[in-house]
Design goal:
mainly alpha, 6 helices, elongated
């Protein structure tokens, strides 16, 4: 049994926008483009409800990385994932840390209150 076709998140978002803007039904748009009408209908409902499930990559680091990248082989995957992980953990500001990167947060703790320093 074969799996269905894989479409990019951009393609899926564009189809949802086409359904929202057009006078055509969801089923008509799906059949014209050649996608499963039930899947498109579900995505349109989820997007309308504001559900984060409509499109992958809604804030989970693994999903964000995998939704953006294609890997040529395992070595390429390791390099890309490690680069993404470092950027996510060391460069990207976190709202839970007062918009500081984890490195800046660690540095601020160790310089402002040496007794509570994280090592």
């Amino acid at each position: 049994m074969s799996k269905g076709k894989r479409y990019s998140p951009e393609f899926k978002r564009e189809l949802v926008d086409v359904v929202r803007r057009s006078q055509s039904s969801c089923r008509q748009v799906a059949l014209e483009v050649g996608v499963n009408p039930n899947q498109l209908s579900r995505r349109v409902r989820e997007a309308a409800a504001g559900a984060g499930k409509a499109f992958p990559g809604g804030g989970v680091p693994r999903d964000e990385c995998l939704a953006m990248e294609w890997f040529k082989n395992r070595i390429d995957a390791k390099v890309v994932i490690e680069t993404f992980r470092r950027g996510y953990n060391e460069v990207r500001p976190h709202s839970s840390l007062g918009q500081l990167t984890p490195v800046e947060f660690k540095r601020s703790l160790s310089t402002t209150n040496p007794d509570r320093a994280i090592f």
